[in-house]
UniProtKB/TrEMBL annotation:
This is Cytochrome P450. The lineage of its organism: Eukaryota, Viridiplantae, Streptophyta, Embryophyta, Tracheophyta. Heme binds at C459. Pfam families: p450 (PF00067). It is a single-pass membrane protein. It comes from Pisum sativum. GO terms for molecular function: heme binding; iron ion binding; monooxygenase activity; oxidoreductase activity, acting on paired donors, with incorporation or reduction of molecular oxygen.
Length: 513
């Protein structure tokens, strides 16, 4: 008995020591380590909270502001802590995300070194369980050999030949949306225009496209999963600056009960889609070539096989990430073209010259140079992902900095995309002509544009997203002109991804052809 008590005391002492190291010694040692290298940051370190309390207050105050609709300098609204701390401590500064030290990195060459590393020295950090519930433990979040396996299998679904074959389905979903606009205009015959909430329109459109192209089903079948993920996204974003205590996800709090409820809805909806696909396969040795078929292909075995749980998690990942980024890219592109009518007309002329009133095919889309330039500028100014985080898996030398193991490296994309050093004095202006010679030559550094990250963990769906956006914008330009509603309030907001806080009401008018 005494032997067991002694073991328990030793274990307890070790655990208490580790807690003391994390909560007290580590903050002191890390701050001292970086101070010697000339890197400082906010002096206040709150027990458990780190800098989270200050960040939460700054974000709350920023969300109360309404910007001039012609201003694209959004850093102080969506990343107010970076805006304030970089002005006080320089572009490289140290802060604490709870008990995790983080250092801000805005140097494009150092960013390239971090994101291009192939040896796992800068890994994706572990995220909160609620994020895993939302996004699924799929390609976005898995690491190491699991990521290699998932990426190898999923690459087949994103080959250019596969993507080109999806354009007709993308167009069909878009034309269905535009026909509904025409129907609403016909009902309101007195008015020659219609006000549409674009955030909701594009969310449903991109969700429908994902459902059709990746899962061979309709938006109606996946609607419950999409809606549950949207509610879950708002719930998680609201608590992103709260202190996370390991194990709290198992306590039946009001928030956790709601998360569990939404997760059950998502899982049930995806199970129905997967079971329907299984039942539709009369010959179990034959599978098609969409994403779901590729994941379920029984010819894949051994190290190349995904089990049913992994398939479910990947479905969550692509249901969320597959439509989220493209939806907001379309929203911000329409916003920018509503402000810059000259560019809206230039793009319309290009589309009519190359496509006429035909549905764009892959060859036509590749020739839409100005459409591509505008989309790239929209991604620069209003990138859906506003920051990336990596974790040093061992003590590393990064440029002239020595980074201790366990330090988070934060890459604020929004700030890099507005750096005058890389983009010039007009870095906050809408100027698609900067991309006339392509993305790599638009700035003074070839990697200053990071909408889809870079390196081995770049976004697997970037070609799909751009092809979809080109198709949708081209079809709208063929049929409608639009302008910004006077009810619009310019308030870009970080809700995990960048989106208008108060929506995007747009006035559309049918073209008289």
């Amino acid at each position: 008995m005494g032997y067991l008590i002694a073991i328990a005391m030793v274990i307890s002492t070790i655990m208490i020591w580790r807690v003391c190291v994390i909560l007290f010694w580590r903050p002191y040692a890390v701050r001292k380590h970086f101070r010697k290298q000339g890197v400082t940051g906010p002096p206040c370190y709150s027990f458990l909270h780190g800098s989270l309390h200050d960040m939460k207050i700054m974000m709350k105050d920023a969300r109360k502001t309404i910007m001039d609709k012609h201003s694209h300098d959004i850093t102080q609204r969506v990343l107010p802590h970076y805006h304030i701390w970089s002005s006080l401590y320089g572009e490289r500064f140290l802060y604490w995300y709870g008990t995790e030290p983080r250092i801000c990195i805005t140097d494009a060459e150092l960013v390239k070194e971090i994101l291009s590393n192939k040896f796992g020295f800068y890994e994706k950090p572990k995220v909160r369980p609620s994020i895993v519930t939302l996004m699924g433990n799929g390609l976005l979040l898995v690491t190491g050999v699991d990521w290699v396996k998932h990426r190898r299998i999923l690459n087949a679904a994103f080959s250019m030949d596969k993507l080109k074959g999806m354009i007709s389905r993308m167009a069909a979903c878009t034309i269905s949306m535009l026909d509904e606009w025409k129907r609403q205009l016909a009902i309101e015959a007195k008015n020659k225009s219609l006000t549409i909430e674009m955030c909701e329109e594009f969310r449903e459109l991109t969700s429908a496209i994902i459902a059709h192209t990746f899962f061979g089903t309709s938006f109606a079948h996946g609607k419950e999963a999409f809606n549950a993920q949207t509610k879950l996204q708002h719930l998680i974003a609201a608590s992103s600056f709260d202190v996370f205590i390991p194990g709290i996800q198992y306590i039946p709090t009001r928030k956790n009960l709601e998360i569990w409820k939404l997760d059950r809805k998502i899982t049930k909806s995806l199970q129905c889609i997967i079971e329907s696909r299984l039942n539709s396969q009369s010959d179990s040795s034959f599978y098609g070539d969409d994403l779901l078929d590729i994941m379920m292909d029984t010819k894949n075995d051994g190290p190349n096989k995904l089990n049913m749980n992994e398939i479910m998690e990947e479905c969550k990942t692509f249901f969320f990430a597959g439509h989220e980024a493209t939806s907001h890219l379309l929203v911000w592109t329409v916003f920018l073209l509503s402000l810059h009518k000259d560019w809206q007309e230039k793009l319309r002329q290009e589309v009519m010259q190359i496509c006429g009133m035909e549905i764009p095919d892959p060859d036509m889309l590749s020739k839409l140079k100005m459409v591509n330039m505008v989309l790239l500028e929209a991604l620069r100014l209003y990138c859906p992902v506003i920051e990336l985080v990596r974790m040093a898996s061992k003590d590393m030398k990064l440029g002239d900095l020595m980074i201790p193991r366990g330090t988070g490296l934060v890459i604020p994309i929004t700030m890099i995309h507005r750096s005058k050093e890389y983009w010039g004095e007009d870095s906050n202006d809408f100027n698609p002509m900067r991309f006339i010679n392509g993305a790599s030559k638009a700035a003074k550094h070839p990697n200053a544009l990071l909408p889809f990250s870079m390196g081995p963990r770049n976004c697997i769906g970037q070609n799909f997203s751009m092809m979809q956006a080109k198709t949708v914008i081209a079809l709208i330009l063929q049929r409608f002109s639009w302008s910004l509603s006077p009810d619009y309030q310019h308030a870009p907001d970080k809700n995990l991804t960048l989106q208008p806080q108060h929506g995007l009401p747009i006035i559309v008018k049918p073209l008289q052809l």
